[in-house]
Amino acid sequence: MSGQIKGGGPAFPAEGPSAGQFDNPGMTLRDYFAANALAGYVSNQEWLRNAYDATGRDPGYCAAMASYEAADAMIAAREVQS
């Protein structure tokens, strides 16, 4: 994806005393999507081995990068559906 990365807004906002104000915006939706994708990548040993073989980089780093790429794609797909 190119351009500015969008966070997708808060994943679990906690509303404050005034409607629409957030005392604690929590993690971004992008972080939430990435965390869920990361669980899939790190649980797949074959994917981790292939990522290391293809890049020579730490498999955890590869999984983190792939997770944010997946999260960005999910946010882009949400925007198309809106």
Features:
two-stranded antiparallel ribbon, 6% strand, 2 strands
Distance between the ends: 19 Å
Tally the beta strands: 2
Strand content: 5-15%
Mean pLDDT: 84
Number of helical segments?
3
* Uncertain stretches of 5 or more adjacent residues: none
Radius of gyration: 16 Å
User: What order do the strands of the largest sheet run in, or round the barrel if closed?
Assistant: 1-2
Determine the fraction of residues in helical runs and give it as a percent range: 55-70%
SSE class: mainly alpha
The geometry reads as elongated
Describe the main β-sheet briefly: 2 strands, antiparallel
User: Would you list the SSEs in sequence order as H and E?
Assistant: EEHHH
Description:
The chain has 82 residues and is mainly α. It has a domain at 27-81. It contains 3 helices and 2 strands. The protein has a two-stranded antiparallel sheet with strand order 1-2. A hairpin with a 6-residue loop joins strand 1 (14-15) and strand 2. It is elongated and about 50 Å long. The model has no long low-confidence stretch (mean pLDDT 84).
Task: Please sum up the structure shown.
The protein is mainly α and 82 residues long. Helices cover 59% and strands 6% of the residues. It has a domain at 27-81.
Summarize the helices and strands and which ones pair or pack.
Layout: E1 14-15, E2 22-24, H1 29-42, H2 45-55, H3 59-81
Antiparallel strand pairs: 1-2
